[in-house]
Amino acid sequence: MRKTIIAGNWKMNKTHKEAAETLKKLAELVIDRENLGGVEVIIGAPFTALESAVRATENTPIAIAAENMNANESGAFTGEISATMLKELGVEYVILGHSERRAMYGETDAIVNAKVLAALKAGLKPILCIGEQLEDRETGKTNEVNGTQLKGGLSGVSVEDMKNVIVAYEPVWAIGTGVTATPEMAEETHAFVRSVLVELYGNDVAEEVTIQYGGSMKPENAKELLAQKNIDGGLVGGAALDAEVFYGIIAAGK
Protein backbone atom coordinates (compact mmCIF):
# COMPACT_ATOMS: atom_id res chain seq x y z
CA MET A 1 0.00 0.00 0.00
CA ARG A 2 1.60 3.26 -1.12
CA LYS A 3 1.68 6.23 1.21
CA THR A 4 -0.57 9.17 0.43
CA ILE A 5 1.61 12.21 1.05
CA ILE A 6 0.32 15.79 0.82
CA ALA A 7 3.11 18.36 0.77
CA GLY A 8 2.80 22.13 0.80
CA ASN A 9 5.42 24.25 -0.96
CA TRP A 10 5.27 27.78 0.42
CA LYS A 11 7.90 29.08 -2.03
CA MET A 12 9.10 32.61 -1.11
CA ASN A 13 6.27 33.28 1.33
CA LYS A 14 5.96 33.47 5.13
CA THR A 15 8.34 35.08 7.61
CA HIS A 16 9.43 32.88 10.48
CA LYS A 17 6.67 34.35 12.66
CA GLU A 18 4.04 33.83 9.99
CA ALA A 19 5.27 30.27 9.48
CA ALA A 20 4.91 29.47 13.16
CA GLU A 21 1.39 30.94 13.26
CA THR A 22 0.23 29.02 10.17
CA LEU A 23 1.72 25.76 11.39
CA LYS A 24 0.13 26.17 14.80
CA LYS A 25 -3.27 26.39 13.07
CA LEU A 26 -2.50 23.46 10.80
CA ALA A 27 -1.25 21.32 13.68
CA GLU A 28 -4.51 21.90 15.53
CA LEU A 29 -6.35 20.49 12.51
CA VAL A 30 -4.16 17.41 12.03
CA ILE A 31 -2.85 16.77 15.54
CA ASP A 32 -4.55 13.38 15.85
CA ARG A 33 -2.82 10.96 13.46
CA GLU A 34 -5.91 8.76 13.37
CA ASN A 35 -7.88 11.68 11.94
CA LEU A 36 -5.50 11.78 8.98
CA GLY A 37 -6.57 8.37 7.77
CA GLY A 38 -2.96 7.44 6.99
CA VAL A 39 -2.23 10.62 5.04
CA GLU A 40 1.25 12.05 5.68
CA VAL A 41 1.71 15.82 5.73
CA ILE A 42 4.79 17.85 4.78
CA ILE A 43 5.34 21.60 4.66
CA GLY A 44 8.15 23.09 2.57
CA ALA A 45 9.20 26.40 4.12
CA PRO A 46 11.77 29.08 3.18
CA PHE A 47 15.23 28.73 4.72
CA THR A 48 14.61 31.59 7.17
CA ALA A 49 11.48 29.91 8.51
CA LEU A 50 12.81 26.36 8.82
CA GLU A 51 13.89 26.49 12.46
CA SER A 52 10.58 28.05 13.49
CA ALA A 53 8.72 25.48 11.39
CA VAL A 54 10.53 22.55 12.98
CA ARG A 55 9.81 23.87 16.47
CA ALA A 56 6.16 24.56 15.65
CA THR A 57 5.62 20.99 14.44
CA GLU A 58 7.35 19.10 17.24
CA ASN A 59 5.13 16.29 18.51
CA THR A 60 2.77 16.69 15.55
CA PRO A 61 2.28 14.53 12.43
CA ILE A 62 3.65 17.36 10.23
CA ALA A 63 7.12 16.97 8.72
CA ILE A 64 9.19 19.87 7.41
CA ALA A 65 10.92 20.16 4.04
CA ALA A 66 13.43 22.66 2.69
CA GLU A 67 12.67 24.06 -0.75
CA ASN A 68 16.18 23.63 -2.15
CA MET A 69 19.78 22.91 -1.15
CA ASN A 70 23.31 22.86 -2.51
CA ALA A 71 24.91 19.56 -3.48
CA ASN A 72 28.18 20.40 -1.71
CA GLU A 73 28.75 19.65 1.96
CA SER A 74 30.50 22.96 2.67
CA GLY A 75 32.81 25.49 1.08
CA ALA A 76 32.95 28.81 -0.74
CA PHE A 77 29.36 28.85 -1.99
CA THR A 78 28.06 32.21 -0.83
CA GLY A 79 24.39 32.22 0.06
CA GLU A 80 23.97 28.45 -0.26
CA ILE A 81 22.70 25.86 2.23
CA SER A 82 23.94 22.28 2.56
CA ALA A 83 22.08 19.08 3.34
CA THR A 84 24.01 18.75 6.61
CA MET A 85 22.80 22.18 7.74
CA LEU A 86 19.21 21.19 6.97
CA LYS A 87 19.51 17.82 8.70
CA GLU A 88 20.89 19.44 11.86
CA LEU A 89 17.85 21.74 12.01
CA GLY A 90 15.53 18.73 12.07
CA VAL A 91 14.38 19.02 8.46
CA GLU A 92 13.27 15.65 7.03
CA TYR A 93 12.61 16.36 3.35
CA VAL A 94 13.94 18.60 0.59
CA ILE A 95 12.19 19.66 -2.63
CA LEU A 96 14.56 19.32 -5.59
CA GLY A 97 14.26 20.03 -9.30
CA HIS A 98 11.19 22.23 -8.99
CA SER A 99 10.18 23.73 -12.33
CA GLU A 100 10.94 27.22 -11.05
CA ARG A 101 14.49 26.18 -10.14
CA ARG A 102 14.93 24.63 -13.57
CA ALA A 103 13.47 27.59 -15.48
CA MET A 104 14.68 30.56 -13.45
CA TYR A 105 18.02 29.30 -12.17
CA GLY A 106 19.10 27.00 -14.97
CA GLU A 107 19.17 23.79 -12.97
CA THR A 108 19.91 20.85 -15.25
CA ASP A 109 19.16 17.19 -14.67
CA ALA A 110 22.81 16.75 -13.66
CA ILE A 111 22.58 19.51 -11.05
CA VAL A 112 19.34 18.10 -9.69
CA ASN A 113 20.83 14.61 -9.58
CA ALA A 114 23.86 15.81 -7.59
CA LYS A 115 21.49 17.36 -5.07
CA VAL A 116 19.38 14.19 -4.84
CA LEU A 117 22.46 12.09 -4.12
CA ALA A 118 23.77 14.58 -1.55
CA ALA A 119 20.40 14.71 0.18
CA LEU A 120 20.20 10.93 0.46
CA LYS A 121 23.77 10.73 1.73
CA ALA A 122 22.90 13.21 4.49
CA GLY A 123 19.76 11.32 5.47
CA LEU A 124 17.24 13.70 3.91
CA LYS A 125 14.33 12.48 1.79
CA PRO A 126 14.19 14.15 -1.62
CA ILE A 127 10.96 15.17 -3.33
CA LEU A 128 12.15 15.00 -6.94
CA CYS A 129 10.10 17.26 -9.22
CA ILE A 130 9.66 16.60 -12.92
CA GLY A 131 7.32 18.13 -15.47
CA GLU A 132 6.79 19.37 -18.98
CA GLN A 133 6.21 22.85 -20.36
CA LEU A 134 3.08 23.66 -22.39
CA GLU A 135 5.10 23.53 -25.61
CA ASP A 136 6.27 20.01 -24.75
CA ARG A 137 2.71 18.81 -24.24
CA GLU A 138 1.46 20.46 -27.41
CA THR A 139 4.23 18.86 -29.47
CA GLY A 140 3.74 15.38 -28.00
CA LYS A 141 6.92 15.39 -25.92
CA THR A 142 5.33 14.98 -22.48
CA ASN A 143 6.64 11.46 -21.89
CA GLU A 144 10.02 12.17 -23.44
CA VAL A 145 10.61 15.19 -21.19
CA ASN A 146 9.39 13.50 -18.01
CA GLY A 147 11.29 10.29 -18.73
CA THR A 148 14.53 12.19 -19.30
CA GLN A 149 14.14 14.30 -16.16
CA LEU A 150 13.25 11.25 -14.05
CA LYS A 151 16.12 9.12 -15.28
CA GLY A 152 18.53 12.03 -14.99
CA GLY A 153 17.45 12.95 -11.49
CA LEU A 154 17.65 9.37 -10.23
CA SER A 155 20.98 8.45 -11.82
CA GLY A 156 23.05 6.54 -9.28
CA VAL A 157 20.17 6.22 -6.79
CA SER A 158 20.08 2.68 -5.42
CA VAL A 159 17.08 0.42 -4.96
CA GLU A 160 17.48 0.84 -1.20
CA ASP A 161 17.58 4.64 -1.44
CA MET A 162 14.42 4.72 -3.55
CA LYS A 163 12.51 3.90 -0.36
CA ASN A 164 13.26 7.49 0.70
CA VAL A 165 12.47 9.26 -2.59
CA ILE A 166 9.17 10.89 -3.53
CA VAL A 167 8.50 11.85 -7.14
CA ALA A 168 6.35 14.90 -7.85
CA TYR A 169 4.91 15.35 -11.34
CA GLU A 170 4.15 19.00 -12.02
CA PRO A 171 2.81 19.96 -15.43
CA VAL A 172 4.42 23.40 -15.63
CA TRP A 173 1.53 24.78 -17.66
CA ALA A 174 -0.82 24.08 -14.75
CA ILE A 175 1.20 25.75 -11.97
CA GLY A 176 -0.12 29.08 -10.74
CA THR A 177 -2.26 29.43 -13.85
CA GLY A 178 -5.50 28.13 -12.43
CA VAL A 179 -5.46 25.52 -15.20
CA THR A 180 -5.49 21.93 -14.03
CA ALA A 181 -4.92 18.78 -16.00
CA THR A 182 -8.03 16.62 -15.92
CA PRO A 183 -7.72 13.67 -13.53
CA GLU A 184 -7.48 11.40 -16.57
CA MET A 185 -4.67 13.46 -18.11
CA ALA A 186 -2.78 13.52 -14.82
CA GLU A 187 -3.26 9.77 -14.32
CA GLU A 188 -1.96 9.03 -17.79
CA THR A 189 1.32 10.78 -17.07
CA HIS A 190 1.57 9.34 -13.56
CA ALA A 191 1.16 5.86 -15.01
CA PHE A 192 3.94 6.60 -17.49
CA VAL A 193 6.20 7.84 -14.67
CA ARG A 194 5.60 4.63 -12.76
CA SER A 195 6.41 2.62 -15.89
CA VAL A 196 9.80 4.36 -16.03
CA LEU A 197 10.36 3.49 -12.37
CA VAL A 198 9.54 -0.15 -13.24
CA GLU A 199 12.15 0.03 -15.99
CA LEU A 200 14.74 1.43 -13.59
CA TYR A 201 14.01 -0.47 -10.38
CA GLY A 202 11.55 -3.27 -11.08
CA ASN A 203 7.85 -3.55 -10.37
CA ASP A 204 8.07 -4.16 -6.60
CA VAL A 205 10.06 -0.99 -5.94
CA ALA A 206 8.09 1.11 -8.43
CA GLU A 207 4.79 0.14 -6.81
CA GLU A 208 6.00 1.50 -3.47
CA VAL A 209 7.10 4.93 -4.72
CA THR A 210 4.75 7.81 -3.93
CA ILE A 211 4.11 9.95 -7.00
CA GLN A 212 2.56 13.30 -6.15
CA TYR A 213 0.61 15.56 -8.48
CA GLY A 214 1.79 19.16 -8.50
CA GLY A 215 -0.50 21.09 -10.82
CA SER A 216 -2.82 23.48 -8.96
CA MET A 217 -4.35 20.93 -6.60
CA LYS A 218 -7.02 22.46 -4.37
CA PRO A 219 -9.87 21.24 -2.15
CA GLU A 220 -12.31 21.35 -5.05
CA ASN A 221 -10.37 18.92 -7.27
CA ALA A 222 -8.20 17.00 -4.80
CA LYS A 223 -10.56 14.09 -4.15
CA GLU A 224 -11.03 13.28 -7.83
CA LEU A 225 -7.29 13.58 -8.54
CA LEU A 226 -6.32 11.44 -5.54
CA ALA A 227 -8.83 8.77 -6.55
CA GLN A 228 -6.67 7.96 -9.58
CA LYS A 229 -4.68 4.73 -9.37
CA ASN A 230 -1.22 6.27 -9.70
CA ILE A 231 -1.73 9.65 -8.00
CA ASP A 232 -0.52 9.19 -4.45
CA GLY A 233 -0.62 12.71 -3.08
CA GLY A 234 0.00 16.31 -3.97
CA LEU A 235 2.72 18.93 -4.03
CA VAL A 236 0.61 22.00 -3.34
CA GLY A 237 1.63 25.62 -3.91
CA GLY A 238 -0.71 28.55 -3.29
CA ALA A 239 -3.41 26.47 -1.62
CA ALA A 240 -0.91 25.47 1.09
CA LEU A 241 -0.49 29.02 2.39
CA ASP A 242 -3.78 28.92 4.28
CA ALA A 243 -4.07 26.24 6.96
CA GLU A 244 -7.82 25.69 6.51
CA VAL A 245 -7.59 25.45 2.73
CA PHE A 246 -4.60 23.11 2.89
CA TYR A 247 -6.37 20.89 5.40
CA GLY A 248 -9.21 20.60 2.90
CA ILE A 249 -6.77 18.93 0.51
CA ILE A 250 -5.39 16.71 3.25
CA ALA A 251 -8.92 15.62 4.16
CA ALA A 252 -9.58 14.69 0.53
CA GLY A 253 -6.79 12.13 0.75
CA LYS A 254 -8.25 10.16 3.64
Automatic annotation (TrEMBL):
Catalytic function, reaction form: D-glyceraldehyde 3-phosphate = dihydroxyacetone phosphate
Keyword Transmembrane helix: no
Highest taxon listed in the record's lineage: Bacteria
Database matches in Gene3D superfamilies: Aldolase class I (3.20.20.70)
Protein localization: Cytoplasm
Enzyme Commission (EC) number: 5.3.1.1
PROSITE patterns in the cross-refs: TIM_1, TIM_2
CDD domains in alphabetical order: TIM
Keyword presence, Transcription: no
Positions of substrate binding: N9, W10, K11, G176, S216, G237, G238
Predominant subcellular localization, coarse grouping: cytoplasm
Protein family: Belongs to the triosephosphate isomerase family.
Role according to the record: Involved in the gluconeogenesis. Catalyzes stereospecifically the conversion of dihydroxyacetone phosphate (DHAP) to D-glyceraldehyde-3-phosphate (G3P).
NCBIfam families for this protein: tim
The protein's name in its UniProt record: Triosephosphate isomerase
Organism name: Psychrilyobacter piezotolerans
